[in-house]
Amino acid sequence: MHRIDSTRRIRASALESFAGHECAGTIPPEVCELCFSDLVQPVDAKASSAGSVRLTLRCPECHHVRVGECSWEEAREFGRHFAKGKAELRGYYDKLADENFRDELDCLVLALHTDLIGPDDFRPYRYSG
Questions:
Q1: Is the dihedral of CA 88, 94, 99, 103 positive or negative?
Q2: For the whole model, what pTM was predicted?
Q3: Category of 36 on φ-ψ map: left (φ > 0), alpha (ψ -120 to 50) or beta
Q4: Is 80 exceeded by the pLDDT of residue 54?
C-alpha cells in the first residue's frame, strides 16, 4: 500500500477512483501513482495486436510519466474520465473569462461616467525623443 503524504491535498474523485483498486494493488490510469492527483493526462497511446492498449501518461502536478498496458475498456474509461475533466475545466475557464470581461466592462463604464477617459486616450502613441 502506498503511503500518502499528509500535507498533500487529495481530490475526493481521486480517492473514489483509487478505493476500488487499492486491494488489488493497482492504480487506475487517471490517478498518479506518486502524488495521487486525478489530473493525469495522456501523452501517447498505441494499440497492440493482443487486444490491449499501451498508454503513456503524465501527471501535470509532479511530472511523473507512467507507461503501462491496459484493456480497451480501461482505455475507453480513462478517455471518458479525461473528457469529463476537460469539459469541467473548460466550463470553469468560460465562467472566469465571463466574470473578468464583466469586471473590465464595469471599470470602463465607471471611467466613462467619471470623465476619466477622453479623446487623448485614443490618440496613436508617438515616441518623441
A1: positive
A2: 0.59
A3: left
A4: yes
